[in-house]
Design goal:
- It is a single chain.
- The chain has 904 residues and is α/β, with parallel strands linked by helices.
- The protein has four domains: 74 residues, no CATH class; 284 residues, Aconitase, domain 3 (2-Layer Sandwich), CATH 3.30.499; 223 residues, Aconitase, domain 3 (2-Layer Sandwich), CATH 3.30.499; 230 residues, Aconitase, domain 4 (Alpha-Beta Barrel), CATH 3.20.19.
- The protein contains 34 helices and 34 strands.
- The protein has a seven-stranded mixed beta barrel with strand order 26-29-30-31-34-33-32. It has a five-stranded parallel beta sheet with strand order 6-5-4-9-10, with helices on both faces. The chain has a four-stranded mixed beta sheet with strand order 1-2-8-7.
- It starts with 9 loop residues before the first helix and ends with a helix.
- 58% of the residues are buried.
- The mean pLDDT is 94.
Length: 904
């Protein structure tokens, strides 16, 4: 961003740095001459630089610089600042609806007499198509080809729409399907670390429409996940209004033991920080232990920031970061100005020099030498289980009452076994049987150390005659083509393939519910026996109902452990005392310790097999696309005005549909500040995730969305997933709260996506009940527990809530992204006062609720009036956290605000 005359700091802080004979300008923080700067966390310094460079006393006030410099005091006072990220990152599940919204905004702007061209990204936007591939074929030589062809066939409408977007909008780049996982592509290729724009240098920073955007924090880039709505606002020149965060310093000391992997480390960090409580806070790592971690290891930790609840998990740039940039093919001239700029700016880190450690809100220490092999599950990524306790823990989960660590299987049913035949072989499965084993996700497939460990383990297992039962759905979905290059060069692809870990696609598969169908005989056996079967995946998410509707116990694990559990065939195994199998040649048992690779062996393979040339070759063709992609043709409008700017909506499309968000919008404000007699649509407990609110997985034939598609002639085999159909509001509204594991207290604990329609007393699908309420002009509310909206940064969780006519939500607490999304889409978030919840207040959800926020201020206490209950009213906190958020709400949401701004 070039300097502008509006910036009051230009004369004081603009400076120059010379690199290889070329001069660059930059906004030098040191020239502020403020002693507080040296004590600021590095992540806060990057917020300060953005405020300094973008200060115009309009969108970014001069006061923000003083506020950030005064961070030690201001962090505890919920002070608002404005942040301008340098770019936006999208994946297709959330990127398609974002582009749909932009297209709809252009249509609305045209209807209201404005110029549609003004609706256009003002910063670089990269969209990586990585969430559409599904594991239909597995364990076959042609699985990659089959799945890629099916992906293109299923998603043709979406992909054509994205190709239109790439040509209709400036600054929008599409990375076609088959290139890799968005966060790994970001880490290895898209991340700039330092931007150069018209001779001005400044830190790379971003927001992304995926929770795991913080993965790039491992490379020293500040970025976090937001909903599509917030990302669209950034695209459209709106700064992010944020409360200056607390920063928790995590001091790493020691070195990982030879038995521990980066995955084990991240699962331990996740459990530790979730227990500590870092929601809505920055986490910044420091200490001598950081210096011993590769960028891939750091990125693995940063990737899991949403799982430990932090906004970011930040590792400032150091020498290892520069080495990684060289390895991944970045140009030497860019690396030179990155290093020079960061050192001049005081943003380059020496982790071994404690004198440069900043001041943090609080400090937590983790000794890397104490990390042990582990898993997390069976329903949450922060439910840490040491490998040695795994069998005991799983068996306890069978016995425990239904909950995050329990399935309540009756004692007489715990030893149940079901026999079946598949492909001419007879098999038997029971509780704990592994039916999905997936090496997948950006978390681990970005890290050569754990992938090569999996390959070495597979090679030894094959040499000892071990095999994986065919009914286990095995898959390898790398985050980029580089993984294939180094596994092939090292000779480790072949043994992985022999165990069934053929490459199924380059994208986010099992971790987001794109695991595909289980083989029919397996599915029938699981259902007939009501079995708690297991999935083991190297992913970052294992929430209930996410991985596969029939697989109830899902564990996150390192890639080598994924292979080990696939060989064992069950999670009810103690690897210390029970063998993986029998070596047919020697007739001797083979234990996990017999095939576990040494760190020396892993590092030797990395040194010989992971090279810069691989990255250069793979990323030289990243935007080219397959012949199928390149053959897609964009439909033109009928030679009307603004033909290239406006999308040709098709009413009969079941993928891309013009949403109703702006249909009733006028130029004038007409805010809803008074809600009368709202019925309760749902009363839910703690940890309701965005997967519960807006599932990404399969669409049930019996669901409202399934009935909608069937009525429009879509065959069940072509239903695709909710994630793939996020460009169609009709499907997504019907899919809101459609998770089959949802528990609604209004139905006394019955599991499923149902609720009570109070006027009739009927039990209905949630969408059907909401539709009746809408017809009768009755507003709705939701009662919720703690961590409401945790999980993925899913904008449809807010959009769907709005479309069901929910005017306000009352929760014990919110996960950061979902609360923000509710605000930005015009739904009021309320929070129970400390120590209170629906149960303690005697609220059942059968009452009617009224709310008046006329004249209310951010974070103010408001009165909720109650009719038909045990109390007449109660006090809640209005979770509009800033004046900007309140202003967005009054406009009907941030997108409406932007349209009105562009009409002026």
């Amino acid at each position: 961003m070039a300097a502008t005359s509006k910036n009051p700091f230009d004369a004081k802080v603009l400076d120059q740095v010379s690199v290889n004979g070329k001069s660059y300008r930059f906004y030098n923080l040191q020239k502020l001459g403020d002693e507080r700067l040296a004590k600021l966390p590095y992540s806060i310094r990057i917020l300060l630089e953005s405020a300094l460079r973008n200060c115009d006393n309009e969108k970014v006030p001069q006061q923000d610089i003083e506020t950030i410099l005064n961070w030690q005091k201001a962090q505890a006072e919920s002070v608002e600042i404005q942040f301008n990220p340098s770019r936006v990152l999208l994946q297709d599940f959330t990127g398609v609806p974002a582009v749909v919204d932009l297209a709809a905004m252009r249509s609305a702007t045209t209807r209201l007499g404005g110029d549609p061209a003004r609706i256009n990204p003002s910063v670089p936007v990269d969209l990586v198509i990585d969430h559409s591939v599904q594991v239909d074929s597995y364990g076959q030589r042609d699985s990659l080809k089959v799945n890629l062809e099916l992906e293109l066939d299923r998603n043709k409408e979406r992909f054509v729409f994205l190709k239109w977007g790439a040509s209709a909008f400036k600054n929008l780049t599409i990375v076609p399907p088959g290139a890799g996982i968005v966060h790994q592509v970001n880490l290895e290729f898209l991340a700039r670390v330092v931007f150069e724009n018209e001779g001005v240098l400044y830190p790379d920073s971003l927001v992304g429409t995926d929770s795991h955007t913080p993965m790039v924090n491992g490379l020293g880039v500040v970025g976090w996940g937001v909903g599509g709505i917030e990302a669209e606002a950034v695209m459209l020149s709106q700064p992010i209004s944020m409360v200056l965060p607390e920063v928790i310093g995590v001091k790493l000391v020691g070195h990982l033991s030879p038995q521990a992997t980066a995955t084990d480390l991240v699962l331990a960090v996740t459990a530790t920080l979730r227990k500590k409580g870092v929601v809505e806070k920055f986490v910044e790592f420091f200490g001598p232990g950081v210096a011993s971690l590769s960028i891939a290891d750091r990125a693995t930790i940063s990737n899991m920031a949403p799982e430990y609840g932090a906004t970011i998990g930040f590792f400032p740039v150091d020498k290892n970061s520069l080495d990684y940039l060289r390895l991944t093919g970045r140009a030497e001239d860019k690396i030179a100005y990155i290093e020079a700029y960061l050192k001049a700016q005081g943003l380059f880190r020496d982790y071994l020099n404690s004198a440069t450690d900043p001041v943090f809100t609080d400090v937590l220490e983790i000794d890397l030498s104490t990390i042990k092999p582990s898993l997390a599950g069976p329903k949450r990524p922060h439910d840490f289980v040491e490998l040695t306790n795994m069998k005991k823990d799983f068996l306890a989960c069978l016995e425990n009452k239904v909950g995050f660590k329990g399935f309540a299987i009756p004692e007489e049913a715990r030893s149940k076994r079901v026999s079946f035949e598949m492909e001419g072989e007879k098999f038997e499965i029971g509780h704990g049987s592994v039916v999905i084993a997936a090496i997948t996700s950006c978390t681990n497939t970005s890290n050569p150390s754990v992938l090569i460990a999996a390959g070495l383990l597979a090679r030894t297992a094959v040499a000892k005659g071990l095999r994986v039962n065919r009914f286990v759905k095995t898959s390898l979905a790398p985050g980029s083509g580089v993984v294939t290059e180094y596994l092939t060069r090292s000779g480790l692809m072949e043994p992985l393939e022999k165990l069934g870990f053929e490459i199924v696609g380059y994208g986010c598969t099992t971790c987001i519910g794109n695991s595909g169908p289980l083989p029919d005989p397996v599915a029938q056996a699981v259902e007939s026996g009501d079995l708690v079967c297991s999935g083991v995946l190297s992913g970052n998410r294992n929430f209930e109902g996410r991985i596969h509707p029939l697989v109830r116990a899902n564990y996150l694990a390192s890639p080598p452990l994924v292979v080990a559990y696939a060989l064992a065939g069950t999670t009810a195994i103690d690897f210390e005392t029970e063998p993986l199998g029998i070596d047919p040649a020697t007739k001797t048992p083979v234990y996990l310790r017999d095939i576990w690779p040494s760190q020396a062996a892993i590092q030797e393979v990395i040194a010989h097999s992971v090279h810069r040339e691989m990255f250069l070759e793979v990323y030289s063709r990243v935007t080219q696309g397959t012949p199928g992609w390149n053959a897609l043709q964009v439909k033109k409008r009928d030679n009307s005005a603004n033909d290239d700017l406006l999308y040709a909506w098709e009413d009969d499309s079941t993928y891309i549909h013009s949403p109703p968000f702006f249909e009733k919008m006028t130029r004038e404000l007409n805010p809803l500040l008074h809600v009368e007699k709202a019925h309760c649509l749902l009363n839910v407990g703690d940890s309701i995730t965005t997967d519960h609110i807006s599932p990404a997985g399969n669409i049930s034939k019996k669901s409202p969305a399934g009935r909608y598609l069937e009525a429009r002639g879509v065959e069940y085999k072509d239903f695709n997933s909710y994630g793939a159909r996020r460009g169609n509001d009709e499907v997504m509204a019907r899919g809101t709260f459609a998770n089959i594991r949802l528990v609604n207290k209004l139905l006394n604990g019955t599991v499923g996506p149902k609720t009570i329609h109070f006027p009739s007393g009927e039990t209905l699908d949630i969408f059907d009940a909401a539709e009746r309420y809408i017809k009768d002009n009755i507003p709705l509310t939701i009662l919720a527990g703690a961590m409401y909206g945790s999980g993925s940064s899913r904008d449809w969780a807010a959009k769907g809530t709005w479309m069901l006519n929910v005017k306000f939500v009352i929760a014990i607490s919110y996960e950061r992204i979902h609360r923000s999304n509710l605000v930005l889409f015009g739904v009021i978030p309320l929070q129970f006062k400390n120590g209170q919840d629906a149960d303690s207040l005697g609220l059942t959800g059968k009452e009617r609720f009224s709310l008046d926020i006329r004249g209310a201020k951010p974070q103010q206490d408001v009165i909720v009036r109650v009719e038909g209950g045990s109390i007449p009213e109660f006090t809640a906190t209005l979770r509009f956290d800033t004046e900007t958020e309140l202003n967005y709400y009054k406009n009907g949401g941030v997108l409406n605000y932007v349209i009105r701004e562009n009409l002026k």
